[in-house]
Amino acid sequence: MKKYFEFIFVSIVSIALTLSAVNIAPKYIDGGKPDSCYGCATEDITKMYAGYVEDWKLKIALAFDEAEIKVFNIKPIPDIVGPHEDPDKCICKGSGVIVQGDGHKTVCPYHGSKFGKDVIIKPLIKLEE
């Protein structure tokens, strides 16, 4: 009788281990496969919310501008991105010369034409001659 119970116990344990080994499959959550048990892939989720993200960015920017007005009592200055046709919006402020972050100067494509060909632009890196 004792051997009978030992056989049943060993059988149950081996069946349980076999079933647990079969169910050990990789679970893909982030960047996973669409057929995984967690649903769709990260790329699909990104595509689903792409339109919302741009709307959220706009709303967040407006909220920060509004908070800056209320908290600091100043009107936010728009970011100057680069050269612009309007001298007030251009990074050169209409002077025709753009001062780069490292200190070297370049001619503005919109307002630098008043200098003509007399301007010599020195390269940032000196090459050996």
Structure characteristics:
single chain; 129 residues; mainly alpha; two-stranded antiparallel sheet; 40% helix; 5% strand; elongated
SSE order and pairing:
Layout: H1 2-22, H2 42-72, E1 97-99, E2 105-107
Antiparallel strand pairs: 1-2
What does the model show?
The chain is mainly alpha-helical and 129 residues long. Among the domains are: 25-77, no CATH class; 79-115, no CATH class. It has two helices and two strands. It has a two-stranded antiparallel ribbon with strand order 1-2. Strand 1 and strand 2 (105-107) form a beta hairpin. It is elongated and about 105 Å long.
Computed CA radius of gyration, to the nearest angstrom: 33 Å
Order of SSEs, N→C?
HHEE
The end-to-end span amounts to 99 Å
User: What would the principal axes of the Cα set say about the shape?
Assistant: elongated
Global mean pLDDT: 75
